[in-house]
Amino acid sequence: MPELPSFEWPVFQPGWVWLVGAGPGDPGLLTLHALNALRQADVVVYDALVETAILDWAPGAERIYAGKRGGKPSPKQRDISLRLVELAREGKRVLRLKGGDPFVFGRGGEEGQTLVAHGVPIRVVPGISAGIGGLAYAGIPVTHRDVNQSVTFVTGHDQTGQAPSALDWRAIARASEVIVIYMGLKHAAQIAGELLAAGRVPSEPVAIVRDATTPRMSVLETTLAGLPEVAAGVEPPAIICIGRNVLLRQALDWQAGPRAVDPLGTRVRPQSA
Questions:
Q1: Which of 4, 60, 161, 213 pairs with 260 at a CA distance of 20 to 30 A?
Q2: HEC states along 221-263?
Q3: What are phi and psi of 28, to 5 degrees?
Q4: Which segments constitute the Tetrapyrrole methylase domain (predicted)?
Q5: Rounded CA separation 134/213 (Å)
Q6: Coil, helix or strand for 131?
């Protein structure tokens, strides 16, 4: 196991719970603070989207699976949170490892609240969110000055498992040039319908990035009108990106090999040094 650079690394104390983001998939996108946590943990409670190779960096830790996948038998959130409390009270160094960032549609805030309410000390280690890092691996920048001055991140389902009824889709459609949807495959047809009804154009570019940043990653490009049909054939996990920034993949798909094209028609020229 590689040595960490010289630094005043935090000490993982017994009885603490660290809420750690594992990033979008590729183990190389793990932060050094997360690696430090893995090397000290007594027990790792991990989610379904955490790559096995990342767990291998905690060879001496007990592993407890707490994955939640839509439509499949999953542990209840309350049970997961209380299990973290129990493990901490046993004097263990508890690493709660979550895909992406623990505070971005990851229920990390809820778990942290439960821990604090039970007197358990916590530390938060942010991670790269799939809605940013996953799209970057697909060659899609979430911001570009010729496309958008805002980006909106939304979840594709609420606590009931349905499309979020509390979201003002009309306001989102009007206000945000780029929309990134987490966990939106199941309700893609409803979401597309809401955005079209709010005035988004049927031909607007859309990308679905599945298993982002992993060797299994695939990218499907379509339009807002075609999203329901394409999404119906995709298995989760996946990120949906809606906006003209998707066109930039024609130039920035670095894994396939970038090409000197100008998909936005902005007449980009090489800048002198």
A1: 213
A2: EEECCCHHHHHCCCCCCEEEEECHHHHHHHHHCCCCCCCCCCC
A3: -70, -15
A4: 17-227
A5: 6
A6: helix
**Residue boundaries of the structural domains of the chain:** 17-128, 131-252
Which H/E stretch holds residue 74? none
How far is 195 from 198, CA to CA, in rounded Å?
Answer: 5
pLDDT in tens, 205-215: 999 999 999 99
**Which architecture does CATH list for 17-128?**
3-Layer(aba) Sandwich (3.40)
How would you classify the pairing of strands 178-182 and 238-242?
antiparallel
Residue range 22-49, pLDDT digits in tens = 999 999 999 999 999 999 999 999 999 9
Q: How far apart are CA 174 and CA 196, in angstroms?
A: 11
Q: What is the DSSP letter of 272?
A: P
d(CA 34, CA 25): 13
Topology of domain 131-252 in CATH is 3.30.950
**AA letter at 186:** K
Residue type, 179: I
| β-bridge partners, 182 | 155, 239
Tell me the C-alpha to C-alpha distance, in Å, between residue 68 and each of 49, 152, 156, 190, 212. Answer: 9, 24, 15, 23, 18
Alpha helices in 138-215 (DSSP H): 169-175, 188-197
